[in-house]
Known about the structure:
Elements: E1 3-5, E2 11-17, E3 22-26, E4 48-52, H1 75-85, E5 90-95, H2 97-108, E6 113-119, H3 132-140, H4 148-160, H5 165-172, H6 182-189, H7 191-194, H8 197-203, H9 211-219, E7 225-230, H10 238-246, E8 251-256, H11 263-266, H12 268-279, E9 283-288, E10 291-298, E11 305-309, H13 320-326, E12 331-335, H14 351-364, E13 370-375, H15 377-388, E14 393-399, H16 427-436, H17 440-444, E15 453-457, H18 466-475, E16 479-483, H19 490-493, H20 495-505
Parallel strand pairs: 3-4, 3-5, 5-6, 6-7, 7-8, 11-12, 11-13, 13-14, 14-15, 15-16
Antiparallel strand pairs: 1-2, 2-4, 9-10, 10-12
Helix pairs in contact: 1-2, 2-9, 4-5, 14-15
Amino acid sequence: MPKFTTYDGTRLAYHLRGEGEPLLCLPGGAMRASAYLGDLGGLAAHRQLVLLDLRGTGDSEIPQDPSSYRCDRQVADVEALRAHLGLDRIDLLGHSAGGNLAMLYAAAHPERVASLTLAATGTRAVGIEVTEEDWRSAVALRAGESWYERGRAAFERLWAGTATRQEVRDAIRPFAYGRWDAAAQRHEAAADAATNREAAAHYYADGAFDPAATTAALAGTTAPVLVLAGAYDSGPTPAHAARLAALLTNAEVAVQPLAGHFPWLDDPGAFTRTVAAFLDPDVRTVTVGGLRLAYRVWGDESAPPLVLVHGRGGDSRDWEVIAGRLAATRRVYALDLRGHGLSDWPGGYSFEAFRDDIRGFLIELGLAGADLVGHSMGGAAAALLAEDEPGLIGRLVLEETPPLFPLKPPRGPAERPTGELDFDWSLVPAIDAQLNDPDPSWRGRFAAIAAPALVVAGGPASHVDQKKLAWMASRIPDARLVTIDAGHLVHAERPADFLGALADFGIK
Length: 508
């Protein structure tokens, strides 16, 4: 593993995982070796993780001066690592106690921080203390677990002062995890051997924190900050995460459901999607109905808005060619529907839910009257929205949109492809069931669509019934039909012809 020499001559180690832009990761514990972070639930597929072993932990050397373990004094180690890597500015992630160190670094070197991710972070650096009441509230959330009663009784002894944390540790360990399964138990079992307890005693020593000064310094920084909390965590609780974010100039809060203090272990996909979306400069997020929806934007802010909606199994990246060309004259938005790409994957899917995603997206971003282009499943959801909200959409383009007749023959069970997917497979059987037996009122209300509409058909190579597409176009009062012989993926297979059809329709 690579090493570098920090300010006092101590040799510190760091570990690299993945490829791409570096993300410097500071472990918690306090003073636990960075190995427990693993690949942060798959985040290494998006960024190169630079996992620092703090002084005296993992493969780093033990310093001569034990007082150098104090949190504020390790800020210089982070700065030495940045300089060693030759980075002008860094994306920085801190977990738990490492979040305190990350905040102190950002306060001391704001010009060096490109972004700050605080995952289940400690909050002592800004004077937010975890109280017994916070613990009681978090513990109560786990009632019903097989280990709950034993753990709650152990906490009662701890709060009463009749037991030490070490004496009750085995009973309270499960509360740190969203689920106390074999993976969580292995993760927790490795903690003792990987933690430098002597160093941990110095980490929070008197003088380590000056909350007023740190809060003032952080309030003046402009780097974007993500404060991510597990719904079951006691430190920070979601309420503490919100308090912390309120102290920062450019912060957002994400609460990961069913997660504890190690959210990347409890739900790797949810953690990775949230952090990857935050770190990607081309991705933004908006909360709609309690769900976080990711989207991409092209073009000048003052240009007329255009919203692009992908089909099943796709995401906003599907539109890069089309969006790039339309951005010369349009402000183009492409979103990831729920269960797709970097948006939340809640596990419940329907055409109605996708319709509501689009509605909420338009309303939250103030895009009423925007032109809307939907492909396949996204087009069906857009059509349902146009039926319900005649004034919300400007022009409507339905590309290879299923006309919502029962499929004959009906689709049988689909086999999940092997490997990682960029969408939640559970949406496939859910949408197939609706395609097999759609609500007849959906197609019965095409006449309610008041927006000018363009129906784009893909010709005989498409699996969508072209006669039914023509029927759908005939039922929408102000609609025209154009066929581009490209199959189902018209905008991808023949982008120039697709753009030409949009231009003839008035979207250019």
